[in-house]
Amino acid sequence: MSHRNRLRAPLIAALLAAVISGLPAYAPAASADRGKDAGPGASDRHDRRDGQDGAGGNTKAALLERELAAAADGLTRSRVRFKKSAYLCYGYQNCADAGMGNAGYAQANKKMYWRMYAGHNCTNYAAYRMVQNGMPNARPWSGGGNATYWGTSVPGLTDGNPSAGAVAWWKANQGPAGSAGHVAYVEQVVSADEIIISQDSWRGDFSWARVTRSSGNWPSGFIHFTDLTVQNTAAPVITGDLRVGTRLTASAGGWTPAAAAVRYQWFADGRAIKKGKNATLALGRRRVGQVISVQATASRSGYNDQTASSAPTAPVRPGLLGNTVAPTIRGTAKVRGTLRLGTGSWSPVPSAYAYTWYADGQPIPGATGTSLALTPDLAGRTIDATVTAGRAGFSNAVAPTATIGPIAPGTIRVRKQPTISGAARPGRTLTVATGSYRPRDASTAVQWLRDGQPIAGATAATYTLAAGDLGSRISASVTASRAGYAATSLTTTPTVRVKVLPRIKVQRVQLRHGVRLVIHVVARHVPVVQGKVAVRVKGGFREKVALNKRGVARVVVTGLKQGRHPARVGFTGSGTVSKSVRKAAIRMPAPKRH
């Protein structure tokens, strides 16, 4: 014992004796700072019960003796602090319920291991796990037992490489550690920058935590006292037919303790197969003549991985290739449609295919893909195809499809309807816009119609209206056609009835008490205009009369005040003559005196 520790020992003993003598055996003392120092979920426990021995150590004297021994051995206590987010569980029961055990420490923590403080204490828990892993309950170095000395006391066992079963070690005041440092048990190595630890801590509780290098809490080192490794008891074995087109299977091999998971890596002629990471391996064409082996890597929580290799196989032999389900053709057998070729089923699966399409039994030039666009020249012809399957180490195999067809003509689609423009009057010209279609190169033909009936010789894009069209509605039929397509015909919306514009002649005959209007309506191409005229004179006169057989109407205007009056004379229209209005004016004489 150092001179300094010899001086401290009587003082520590006196303090412990005073504490113990004033308390019932093992009763935890209250602490004013318990809440702020304890970790998440910690109970109101204190380490004065630490160091209780399972064999006759339940007396105050035994407790005092162990506390004095630990203090005299140079041990001090300091807390450890991780962020709450780092904890995976907290407390023996909470962790057990989450499947995160303590290796029996909950029942054995009253005993001192490697002369550490018993109970909730990081060094006692880490020492306990090392004893459980086969080490003797004797500190494997001489000197201080505080956590901060662990890594420096066994430098030959300490490095920066995390390993399951190793002790994660923090120097004093490094990361989460206090003035006495910190140690924990490495349960799992997630990656080179992430580990899962279990730990116990003074003035805290048992817990599991996740530690990452970026958190600032990465250990100062890892002490490899007795890292645990899964041991292989039986090498993996390869089974299956060594022929291209088959699949080999690897057994997991035997492991102690039993492996929780096994990873595989296949090799061909000693070289790792890039995608060979499953328990089975498909023998592809490149495997002909190659020797195959496999490695199985076993994993178990709390243990380091171990790898075992199988015995190599004999060289892989060529395989047999055959068609089990015939290829098929799908799609609509119509021009502008697309036929698609299904390769069928093969055993084993080929690595390459070749395709040939036929029309009426003759190869179609350039048609060597899995799809065939049905062009107009294929209308009316029958179609079939063959699939040639190949693979290195296999004989090529050819399989035909059934024949389909004949191919139906395509349908011309209308993108824009045809329309007529122009005035519906004799002597005027109508023009038809034939519309647009798909395919774009479809040709169009025009036939003009009078009241739905073809007009002889009227097949141009324009049509000049004649007298014979009076009273009729004119439309155009447009037929779009293309080779390999069914022709389609569309009729435009008819025009209004073809009519001429009339000319209204008004003759005024002055009477003693009124005005007689003689109205004559004439129109080109119409010998006699029939219909009615309407006379409206401002001031209140209205009258509608029919034209006589000579196209003349007479209207006498009376009852208006003396003077000039605006008037409107209108023709109401007929089947061949349009409506028309003419403005006029009349002068009313002075009213009759009695």
Question: What is the strand and helix layout of this fold?
Answer:
Elements: H1 3-21, H2 34-37, H3 60-72, E1 87-90, H4 92-97, H5 105-108, H6 122-132, H7 147-153, E2 158-159, E3 167-170, E4 182-191, E5 194-199, E6 207-212, E7 221-223, E8 231-234, E9 238-239, E10 247-250, E11 254-256, E12 261-268, E13 271-272, E14 280-282, E15 292-299, E16 306-309, E17 322-325, E18 328-330, E19 338-342, E20 345-347, E21 352-359, E22 362-363, E23 371-373, E24 383-390, E25 397-400, E26 410-411, E27 413-416, E28 419-421, E29 429-433, E30 436-438, E31 443-450, E32 453-454, E33 462-464, E34 474-481, E35 485-486, E36 488-491, E37 503-510, E38 515-522, E39 532-537, E40 541-546, E41 552-557, E42 563-571, E43 580-588
Parallel strand pairs: 26-35
Antiparallel strand pairs: 1-6, 2-7, 3-4, 3-7, 4-5, 5-6, 8-11, 9-10, 10-14, 12-13, 12-15, 15-16, 17-20, 18-19, 19-23, 21-22, 21-24, 24-25, 27-30, 28-29, 29-33, 31-32, 31-34, 34-36, 37-38, 38-41, 39-40, 39-42, 42-43
Helix pairs in contact: 1-3
Structure characteristics:
594 residues; seven-stranded antiparallel sheet; four-stranded antiparallel sheet; single chain; disordered N terminus; mainly beta; 7 helices; 11% helix
Number of helices: 7
Strand order of the largest sheet: 1-6-5-4-3-7-2
**SS-based structural class?**
mainly beta
What's the pLDDT, averaged over the residues? Answer: 87
